[in-house]
Amino acid sequence: MEEAFLDTNVLVRHFVYDPVLSHSATKCLEAIAGGKLRVWTTMLVVFETVFTLERSYDVPREDIRRHLLTTLQLPNLRLAGKSYLPEVFELYINKGISFADAFHAVEMVRRGTTNVISFDKDFDRVGGLQRLDPRGLLRDKAA
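The structure corresponding to this sequence follows.
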């Protein structure tokens, strides 16, 4: 079989029991682990999985990290940006910020950007970043 795209619902059904779909989702991931399937996915799938597990199923953040990091490290699963995820999950859990903000913070640090223009005060909890409130930024520029 040629390489296939792995969608969010397979990951969610593997982590959260469903009497009809969970067994097949787990078998699919076992086939990936065993080299019988080669797949790729996107960071958007990771975001959607985290969001769904957290918001729809109340899965604790630590469990989400453990499950996803283990699964996404499968050798036959390609994902651009995979190396960011341990740092992203550290911020997500230890700073209590959203997964998206944690990802953005890691991306900024890796690119050497220290300033973030945002109303979101969650960025204030991330060391090495300076949040610039657009209201003050525009007021300063107009003067």
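The first strand starts at residue 4 and ends at 5.
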